Each structure stands twice: as C-alpha cells, then as structure tokens.
Amino acid sequence: MRIGVLTGGGDCPGLNAAIRAIVKRGSSEHGHSIVGFRNGWRGFLDGNAVPLDRNDVRGVLVHGGTMLGTARCHPDKEPGGLERVREVVEAERLDAIICIGGDGTLKAASRVADTGIPVIGIPKTIDNDVVGTDVSIGFDTAMMIATEAIDRLHSTAESHNRVMVVELMGRHSGWIAVAAGIAGGADIILAPEEPFDMEKVAKRITYRHRSQAGFSIVAVAEGARPSEESDWSLDTTTDEAGNPIAGEIGQQVTREIQARTGYEARLTVLGYVQRGGTPTAADRLLATRMGVAAIDAATLGVTKKFTAVRGPEIVLEDFSVMVGKTRFVPKELLEAARGL
Ligand code: F6P
User: What is the domain range of residue 153?
Assistant: First the structure.
C-alpha cells in the first residue's frame, strides 16, 4: 500500500515520534510506501509530497515540532479543496491518508473521509481538548513545561512578596492551567470551565498574604473568563475567529489583582514555550503507540476513525465522536484545583 501522512494545526512535541512509528512499522512490518506531505493539508493540496523511509526518521524521537512542517488549513474550507485532495490521492496513488492533528485538522480529515478516501486520524494538541481520547499527544510535555515554570515562579514570588500570574495555553479549555496549576502548587487556578469572580480572587489573595504567606501564584488559562455575577469584565481578549489572543487575559487579570489588593503583581505568559522542545517519555510512548495503531488500521482498510486512549488501551473512535466538540476539564479535576 501507499500511505500518505500529514501533520496539521498547532505543532507539539511528540509529532515526530508518531511519524517515526508510522514509517518504521509501515515499511518494515507491512511493506508499505509512506508518503509524507509538507505543511499539513496546505501541502497536501499543493501536492508537496516527500517519500519517507527509515533513514528519514532516524533520531527524530527527541526532536520537538514536526519534521513535515504544519499549517492551519482545512480542505473542506477551500474552494474545490475536497476535489483537489482526490486529485492528489490519485496522482500519488495513495491507498489511505493518516492525518495527525487537533480538533480542526481532524474535522477536516473527517470531511475528506466522507468523500470515500480512507482516512485515519491521530489526535495531537497541547490543549488536550479532543473528545473521545483520554489524552492527546503533546499534553504531557506542555504540562511538564508549565509545571516547571510554576515551580520556578515560587522563589521569585516569595523573594519579592509578589503575586505572580502565569498565563497558560489551552484555547477554550483549561487542561494545562488546571493540571500544571495543581502539580505546581498554584494558589489560585482560573479556567474557562469555571468562570471566576474577581472580587473573590482578590479577597483570597489578601487573606493568604495576611495570614499564610507573603506571596501567591495564580495560574490563568488563556480562555478563562469572569463570571456573569462578577463586578468585573474583560476588554476584548479574542481574535476575529474567537480564539484567545496570547497575553490579553493575563495582563488584565494581573492589573486588576494589583489594583484590588495593593500587592505587586507580575505576569509571565508562557506562550509557545509550552509547545517547544523535546517530548517527554510519556508523549514519545503515546505517539508511538498511536502511530502503530494508525498504520495497522490503515492496513486493514479501516477509515473514518482516530486512535484514542481509553484507560490502558489504544482504541479506534469514530470521527463523529469528536467533530465540533471540545473536551473540557471534568468537575473532579476542577474540585481538586479549588482551594488547596
Ligand atoms: O491549539 C494549540 C495552541 O497552542 C493553543 O493553545 C493556542 O491558543 C493556539 O494553538 C495558538 O495558535 P497559533 O499557533 O496559530 O498562534
């Protein structure tokens, strides 16, 4: 078989481990030819193909990012995009496509699969917001990076008796802020799943500084929002697509905390550091497992499914389970984050 592979959407550590597994398992175990496409669906539409063999993936396990490059492009949103996909499939004599991406890229993959082209998806995003899988590639590394940053903020916050606000990625979910906030011992965690009351935040900080410790750490997800009841609202913090603008909520929350409490407050926006560098062992293992499951499924002619973690297993879930949905932080984890 000839199997195409692409990585779309935001990059994350672990992508190269998935590509490596697809190439090595596909060529050695199944005798397939693997055809990589540069820059996600954009490269696919441009026919930007590159054959991949074992030599091409040697040593990539430790490298962050994606050796194929990526882009935010969805064929079903491009004029004639789906027809162009079929043209490229025929020109490259592809039997199937493996698409590694987040919710947007996998939604596009499901539209391609609906045209009859066999497609298998692999969920990756540091946001961990793909419905149907317990975890997505990239989340563990982002959580580790964010936790280490929060650990480091403690010493400088304590030295200056300051409120240290750290803004974390996650788009419309709070997985990184909640998980790293708990792991890193943040005193207050603000997540989109639980709109916050700014006056209560200020009172908790004031109480802590007066009675417990002269500093605080506040982890804010970029998609967090004040509640309707709050006496405070945000200025615009999203772009025209409704996605968070990095740094916006962090700045506004930091300013408001200082104004209400009188304590010095400083902001750290972790931004793209959360998507950089070498993947953790957990992400390498997860990506390898998903790559193997994807190429094995493609070999069997399976389509319209994506690899998913369910407890100890990797299973195949229908695209329909995740399309148009966001996986939010569950109540149990929000409870664990509250008032530790
Ligand atoms: O989806 C991953 C992510 O890092 C989000 O957490 C963040 O809001 C977004 O990508 C940033 O998008 P871009 O890389 O296009 O600036």
Answer: 142-275
**SS3 for 178?**
helix
335 domain residue, yes or no: no
Query: Which residue among 42, 127, 237 has the greatest number of ligand 1 atoms within 8 angstroms of its CB, and so is best to mutate?
Result: 127
337 in a structural domain: no
DSSP for 252-281?
A: HHHHHHHHHH-S-EEEEE-GGGGG-SPPPH
Dist CA 301 CA 51 (whole Å): 21
Predicted local confidence at residue 9, as pLDDT:
96
**Relative to the CA of 272, which ligand 1 atom is closest?**
4
Q: What is the pLDDT of residues 87-140, one digit of tens each?
A: 999 999 999 999 999 999 999 999 999 999 999 999 999 999 999 999 999 999
297 and 235 part of one domain: no
Q: Identify which of 169, 220, 275 to mutate to test ligand 1's pocket (most ligand atoms within 8 A of the CB).
A: 169
What is the pLDDT at residue 159?
A: 97
For ligand 1, residues with CB inside 6 Å are 10, 72, 102, 125-127, 169-171, 222, 243-244, 275
Check residue 212 and give its pLDDT: 87
Calculate what percentage of the chain has a pLDDT beyond 90: 96
Mean pLDDT of 303-320: 98
Burial of residue 79 (CB within 10 Å: 0-12, 13-18, 19+) is exposed
Residue 127 a catalytic site member: yes
Ligand 1 centre to CA of 231 (Å) is: 30
